[in-house]
Amino acid sequence: MNSKPQLLAWIMCDGVHIDPATGKHTILGVFSNIQAKRFPVTHPFMIWFLTLSDCTTGRHQMNISMGRDPTRMQPLIKRDFDSPDRLQRINLINEIRNLTFPEAGEYSIVIEIDDEPILATSIHVLG
To answer: What is the CATH number of the domain that holds 22?
Structure first.
């Protein structure tokens, strides 16, 4: 049976701490929009944290794209990851540096695993 991977969590935050003793992830500074006084604005650093399940054993590729126009998305992240087992939950920590928003508004975000969309959402940039 080949089902597509399931997205269990998608969080924008300031940071993720992994406890070396337990492996637990602590999410720091969760936010859902960006505010700016003038544009263009560049956000210096953020983390997009994802938890996936139901990934078949083996190598996979994650792509994240973003754009003001959902029909013209720009690639932001392209990375490979391994799944040891379909039942294993996989946490992916994605650092986003110097992301520029030319104007206030809604920016679409699409996350794909192995070219299959698993999330289409947006981030609001407020002026």
So the answer is: 2.60.40.10
